[in-house]
User: What shape does this take?
Amino acid sequence: MDKIEKLQTLIDKAKNIVFFGGAGVSTESGIKDFRSKDGLYRQKFDYPPEVYLSRSFFNQHPDLFYQFYREKLNCLEAKPNICHNYLVKLENEGKLSAIITQNIDGLHEKAGSKKVLPIHGTIYKNHCLNCHKFYEAEAVFNSKGIPRCSCGGIIKPDVVLYEENLDENMIIKAIDAIKNCDLLIVAGTSLVVYPAASFINYYRGNNLVIINKDITSFDKKANLVINDSLGNVFNKLK
Assistant: This one.
């Protein structure tokens, strides 16, 4: 039995699947990941991406933050891929209890998934820092300079920047889902971003699957490791 067949068997037998995904889930949709050889972190900028995407940089240089944000994180035109669509199928079959995603692109929701926990936030929610008025993503990406509310306040995307904490309620829900699943599929993530990567330690079962192009520090804990693109893997699943 090859690795894809083994994964298919695990999925077929599972009753409570949790999918934990990272940037590699969206690369098939044309969105660059962060840490691969062609990723965002390998490109040259005036500042490192993690500086641009920090809360202190947002506070001090909102104009430069938004210049970077609009150029590199605008994925409004991206479409869900085979991975997103397969997870919708599993949810509709009653097998998938949660998608925990580190991505902010909203593609799981766009595909039709309902049980999504976007632990790093989403580009589709934006609020004024003064009056908290809500703004659509299009209002931010189509604006010029620093997007401002009708009250004059700066609009901030509801994405978790470096130096910001994850939402406490989101953490509780993610950990609870991982604790109670019988199959945990971790895919498209290098598992180096904390605290998100540490959530995997709460898994109590013996069906941990890691799908990623490169090796991760959690591979030794997994029952099945597949080093391949998610497109190649999910195209072979039924």
About this structure: The radius of gyration is 18 Å. DSSP finds nine helices and nine strands in the chain. The mean pLDDT is 93.
